[in-house]
Amino acid sequence: MALLLLLGQLLALMGYGGAFYLEVRELEEKCFIQEIPDGTVVIGNYKTELYDPAMEKYQPSPQWINLFVFVKDPENKNLLARQYGPQGSFTFTSQSPGEHQICLHLESIRFALFYDGKLAIHLDMQLGEHTNDYAEFAAKDKLTQMHLRVQQLVEQWREERFRQTSESTNQRVLWWSILQTFILVATGVWQMQHLKSFFKAKKLV
Asked: Domain range for residue 73?
């Protein structure tokens, strides 16, 4: 069963991604939650290491150690389920705004790991506008300055729409909480009045 790590706090600033380090055992799955706007390209650059007890330190993983990446969107739909090598990058694009679950685990595809299979993952997540080097886009795709500006505006619009959606959701949750409180208070008052009338009818008060 996945151990859900709320590492989203490390990536709290929307669009800034984050870098972190995980120590794991073979087949031990680590998951974290990331808030991502829709239509956002996410890139995870990683490298893995295998513990060498003779050297008493971690060394770069051999080629037969693979990283498995699984990504689910807020509707629990799979966006990515793929096997990668010991070092490289993975990419996916969000389809809807909200909390995305990203899970990782390492597995030996050739030999059983000794020494309890102690492994480490270095992961650098990049998303939003920081993923896009607009100058590089212009050079590679020969975009005009106008096209480049349109690309930037589209990214800004996506960020703004996600922010507005989040604010609207928070406001609905607040009003629903107020309504629940009002209903509870009204129910309590009605029950008190009903009991008071009942006792009076029975001449107990």
From this structure: 30-130
